[in-house]
């Protein structure tokens, strides 16, 4: 009976050791066969598909013959033109043409006149390409006297300047996707960027001045980094340098809630009519439509120009959070009016302009960066949207946020592609177990042999 038990123990030990060898081999093979998960910089890409996108046609025809472009309900680009000859060029390129009375040059001159008027906090204006108008908005804080004064300025410019009263107040969203905290308040991280030597968080400029220290927790135990550069008002972007110098795993993923994320593959400028998505640490993931570009907002703290205007909602704490569509980075949350119960207007700092001013590039996965180095550049937002109806657009490809979820199986953790080291340890331990099992079995056989012959010779 005792010998039988010994045989069972030896057999179980051998099977466990063999299983360990197989598991360790899977871990190492899985890791070696996969792409190294490091990060790399990807160049930004703008809407310049030769001859057949709205942006390219506007650039080709000029601002005196066009008045912007947008995405139609069917996903095709629509270009506003001022004459029939320009319309023919647009149609020949496969886009839809809309003849309008006012050129982009005239619309821009109207916004210049508005900027030169006395500043009124709580007002904003943007170019509405689809109606060929400049839309001026005033929130509930604007007095009747200021409203009348601004209305007179608008009337003097021309009938294509439309005045609107809006609900709520235009404020910055201080207080994503992931929350970042400092003594000045709470914001949301935007996108991870790099200058080739250090990694940074690109977020809103109004979140804090240069030198602000940021943490990932309320207790101030997990220091993220320090604000290195900031631009607000005028623009609304800032750069937070990671304390460790590196963004770490998952740098190309933005969180959208419940442990889920979206993988970011490039950066671009948005198009009017495009469906977009915003994530923030307060309100999570929400979507809407781009309604205007080159928007100006007169916040109480100062005036910010060149913003993206959208119908996406946002709330305090969402500031700095990412705006994206189909995995393409578009902007970081600046401010707006309303909330995510009643809706509202939200403005975003274009990410391409911010990265150009700061001298940084978007961080994407090594696999995406390798693809970007080939014949095709990272896709632009307009290029992607030109084949997708706005209602069909999605945030992008899903990816887990850095960290192991509670529902992840042990096997999934053990076969993670980063586990070359643990896999080798499992193999080494299994080999030791096999050798030990073999040694003990040989020792037992030797002793049994001695006992047998000792009894025989005695």
What does this structure look like?
By secondary structure, the chain is an alpha+beta fold. Helices cover 30% and strands 32% of the residues. The chain has a 7-stranded antiparallel beta sheet with strand order 1-25-11-12-15-14-13. Strand 22 and strand 23 (328-339) form a beta hairpin. The radius of gyration is 30 Å and the shape is elongated. It starts with a helix and ends with a helix. Mean pLDDT is 79; it is low at 30-40, 44-52, 371-388, 403-420 and 452-458.
Radius of gyration: 30 Å
What are the segments in which pLDDT stays under 50 over at least 5 consecutive residues?
30-40, 44-52, 371-388, 403-420, 452-458
**Main sheet, how many strands, which sense, barrel?**
7 strands, antiparallel
- Tell me the β content: 25-35%
Helix content: 25-40%
Number of strands: 26
DSSP helical segment count: 10
Quick check: average pLDDT? 79
First-last Cα distance: 26 Å
Give the overall form: elongated
Helix/strand/pairing class, anyone?
Answer: alpha+beta
Name the descriptors.
458 residues; disordered C terminus; elongated; seven-stranded antiparallel sheet; 26 strands; alpha+beta; six-stranded antiparallel beta barrel
Question: What's the short story on this structure?
Answer:
By secondary structure, the chain is of the alpha+beta class.
What are the SSEs and their pairings?
Layout lengths: L1 H32 L5 E4 L11 H8 L4 E6 L5 E5 L2 H9 L3 E4 L4 H13 L6 E6 L4 E6 L5 H14 L3 E5 L5 E2 L6 E4 L2 E4 L2 E4 L4 E5 L9 E3 L7 E9 L5 E6 L10 E5 L2 E4 L2 E2 L7 E6 L3 E16 L2 E9 L11 E4 L2 E12 L3 E8 H8 L2 E5 H7 L8 H5 L12 E3 L9 H5 L5 H38 L1
Parallel strand pairs: 3-4, 6-7, 18-23
Antiparallel strand pairs: 1-25, 2-3, 5-6, 5-20, 8-23, 9-10, 11-12, 11-25, 12-15, 13-14, 14-15, 16-17, 17-26, 19-20, 19-22, 20-21, 21-24, 22-23, 23-24
Helix pairs in contact: 1-10
